[in-house]
Amino acid sequence: MPRWILLRSLVFHGLLIGSVMVVVILLVLVSPFGLEGTKDRLARAWAYFNLVALKWICGLDYRIHGLERLPRQDDTVIVLAKHQSAWETIALRAILPLRQSWVLKQELMRIPIFSTGLKQFSPIPINRSAGRRAILELVREGLERLERGRWVIIFPEGTRVAPGTRHTYAMGGATLGAKSGRRIIPIAHNAGVFWARRSVRKRPGVIDLVIGEPIETAGRSAPQINSEVEDWIETTVAALPGCHSERTADRAASPLASEKQS
């Protein structure tokens, strides 16, 4: 891989770390005054800044399919998204409505400075080794966030996975959907093709992010919901550039493929 890709990637990483420090300072300054909306806007501005920096420094852009499928902020929903890269943790903050609460691994809340910023947005830290207890905690905290008008963002696989592979889809998000009756928005993308997990390098190109139709949860069981979410995400991801896998190749055509034909 050309050396300039690594150099540009390092420049972007330095800028990313610096921007985290700046936004955390700003969040701490406004925190005593409440100003929840201001904090959410600061987070969105930070995300947009880094997406623009990523485009101009590393040549990595993105396009969104199905943006019109997102409901309004006051129609609180649960978002279940594919997790391949650090990119989507930035992009979803910019793309989705302002008021968001993320389900994240407990270890992230122990990182100095970074955790200070996370705490400003009512996250839901989960001990992934706690099994059913973790699901019950997610549901309890998730219901409270939804009642407060915050969207709940979840990566059901629990960790970043390489393109063309998958992990088990945990039941937490689907259980929250079944208990709350709130709709689920599935999201697929191929960010890992350009920004791989545990890699500094950012390959130039265009990331495709696909927003699915809202999935109804009222009156349905968590396993039914989870299966529908997994099928849609994995089928859609498999149709994206760089994400082909034998396991999903023989499935029905993805919504993205249909969109391109229409």
From TrEMBL:
It comes from the Bacteria. Residues 77-192 form the Phospholipid/glycerol acyltransferase domain. GO terms for biological process: phosphatidic acid biosynthetic process. Keywords: Acyltransferase, Membrane, Transferase, Transmembrane, Transmembrane helix. The keyword Membrane applies. One of its GO terms (molecular function) is 1-acylglycerol-3-phosphate O-acyltransferase activity. Pathway: Lipid metabolism. The keyword Transmembrane applies. InterPro entries: Plipid/glycerol_acylTrfase. The chain crosses the membrane at residues 12-33. This is 1-acyl-sn-glycerol-3-phosphate acyltransferase. It comes from Thiocapsa imhoffii.
